[in-house]
User: What shape does this take?
Amino acid sequence: MHRSRVLPAAVATAALLALSSGLSGCAPALGVGDWKLEPISWDAQTFGDVDVAFGMSTVAADGVGGFWSGSAGSWLRVGADGETLARFNIEVEHPLHGIGDVAALSPTELVAVRSRNEPDATPGLSLVDMETLEYTDVPMKPLPEDEPDPAGFDFGDFMFGALAVHDGDAYVIRYQPTPPTPAIDSEVLRIDLDTGEREVVHREALTFDESTPSAPGAPPVDIDVDAEGRIYLATPANRIVLAPDGTELSRTAQSATRPVVAVRPDGLALWWGGSAEPSTAESVIVGGSAEARDLIKARQSCDELYRQDALHLTYADEQEPLSLLCSPNAAAWVGDAWVVAVGGEGDGVLVRLTPPAHLPPGGPTVSSTT
Assistant: This one.
């Protein structure tokens, strides 16, 4: 059974000090098997520091221990020490309002999926200076695969989705309809951000049956890349790991409403999707407001949520279910922990999820489960 403990900030501090000094006390200390969950507070300007607000839709590590997080036109940067480094809104009329997924190239430069308001806007990527909000569009060189097919269909860059970066390249999900069948392909494009050269690394067939009422439109697909260039792909039907050249290393079946994947640089990965399974993992909630702690605790189970995407950990060829943070909006490895965005309007929380120290490193996996 999953066991969770909620520690107020002062008690948590005492527990950590007792652990480091080898002392014991009445407050429970963090055991080596505990996952630590900590609500992240940030300066909301008008309302001061908050740890419960609107739900963020994207999280991106800034490369120096902090992260960017955004939802529609609202943006936030939190530093490695927890300080709010930036907080601003992008006006609806601004071309960058409503940009899609993002990934950081430097602490203040993001590559963003372009999703603009102009009638003739086409999918693409932009390099955005988050201090000035000036942007440069990434050139997009055509692919041989984009030649019209025998039936005369030429969708080109029909739609872009999730995004990751690695070694100067962007990895983006591109959706391509496959008429006359009611289906759509999700392609992993690798794009050189300097030259615009790009290639299709992987193609995965999807059906519109995999698009649920809570996520209308193209079936959701998430992507992340580890330090070795391995690609982690989460679809409604599968958890997939690819070698840097696109060779499939593993495939595990799942049934996800809104799949999410976030990988530690060494390949230790968190996947959200599918039904909850019995878990022996233990967790402790430290710090934060009572409201934030209650919201985190409520997500140990998916039962009361409109999305039922439970958490699984994978490392090497093993996997472990975790009764934590069901059905998030987004997640990313930041510094020495995952930052996970959960909740919606009025009950959104950013959570720092620190794994137990004893967990082994991840890495390539060659097993396949169907």
Observations:
- The longest helix spans residues 9-21.
- The CA atoms of residues 197 and 245 lie 16 Å apart.
- The chain has a mean pLDDT of 84.
